[in-house]
Give the backbone structure.
Amino acid sequence: MIVKHINQVIHTHDDIDTETWNSRRLLLQKDGMGFSMNDTIIKAGTETLIWYQNHVEAVYCIEGEGEIEVIGGETYPLYPGTLYALDGHEKHFLRAKTELRTVCVFNPPLMGGEVHDENGTYPLLTAQTADPK
């Protein structure tokens, strides 16, 4: 059984802070669940290009307002209670009108230190390729 409080993650190597988002990695590949789960804050007034070529992701908004724009497709509003699932590796922009707080689930699971590259992609890391923290 895994029992964890977010305060055990904040200000550790599993708390990844970038210019547009801050992701607290609660469950990772090392936890053996077959998925990873993050508590992620999208910073107010930001836009992030994202393209998960190597992962599928489900996102549940619990606080704030924003939108997701699928490149070449529709734009959807985000507010508490909204779920979106990127089951087709959709390239998209994530925009936060106010600070957005989300719960994100990834498959395959994240190793922990991933950040988006210039294409908006997380690399597919394994225990052999991950940068040890």
